[in-house]
Specification:
Blueprint lengths: L17 H8 L3 H13 L2 E8 L4 E11 L5 E12 L2 E9 L13 H9 L8 E8 L5 H12 L3
Antiparallel strand pairs: 1-2, 2-3, 3-4, 4-5
Length: 152
C-alpha cells in the first residue's frame, strides 16, 4: 500500500462530510462507503467528534441497545480515523476477553495481528488496528466487532 501515513481531518472547524472523506480517501472511498453501509446490518452507528487531545476528528462505532429494565445502553465497538488514502479502525479488546478472540473463525493474518497486539500500559485493553483501503479484511473485522459488542 502506497501511503504517506498522514492522518487527515485535523481542522476543528470543518466537520467530516461524505465529500470531504471521499476527497481524503481517494480510491479507498468505495471501501469506506461499503464499510459504512455494512455497519447498519451490525447495529453499529458512527458518531464523529473532534478530539482536542489528538487534534483530529475521530468516529466512534457505537452499539446501542435497550437493557432488561428499559434503560438505554451503549458501548464503543471501535474507533475510526481518516488517513491519506486509507482509513484506520481500532478495536480495543479487554484483557479478560483476549484469549477468547482466538476461538473466532479468523484467518492466520488476523490471528497474528491479535497475537502481536500489546497491552496498553496500565489499561487492560489490547488494540487491534486495521489499516483498510479495500474490503478484503471486512469479514474478519466485523467478526471482531460482533465479538466486541457482546463483551459487557
Amino acid at each position: 500500500m502506497k501511503s504517506t501515513k498522514q492522518q487527515l481531518l485535523r481542522n476543528p472547524d470543518i466537520q467530516p462530510s461524505n465529500d470531504i472523506i471521499a476527497t481524503a480517501l481517494g480510491t479507498s472511498n468505495n471501501a469506506y462507503e461499503k464499510f459504512v453501509n455494512e455497519l447498519a446490518s451490525h447495529d453499529i452507528q458512527l458518531e464523529w467528534r473532534y478530539y482536542t487531545d489528538g487534534k483530529a476528528w475521530l468516529a466512534k462505532g457505537l452499539y446501542k441497545w435497550t437493557g432488561v429494565r428499559g434503560g438505554q445502553n451503549e458501548t464503543t465497538v471501535f474507533w475510526l480515523s481518516i488517513w491519506d488514502g486509507f482509513f484506520k479502525v481500532t478495536i480495543y479488546i479487554p484483557e479478560k476477553a483476549h484469549a477468547d478472540v482466538f476461538s473466532l473463525p479468523l484467518d492466520n493474518e488476523v490471528k497474528q495481528i491479535i497475537a502481536d497486539s500489546k497491552q496498553m500500559g496500565k489499561l487492560k485493553y489490547f488494540p487491534l488496528v486495521f489499516d483498510l483501503c479495500s474490503d478484503e479484511m471486512f469479514e474478519a473485522f466485523f467478526s471482531l466487532a460482533d465479538f466486541r459488542k457482546n463483551i459487557k
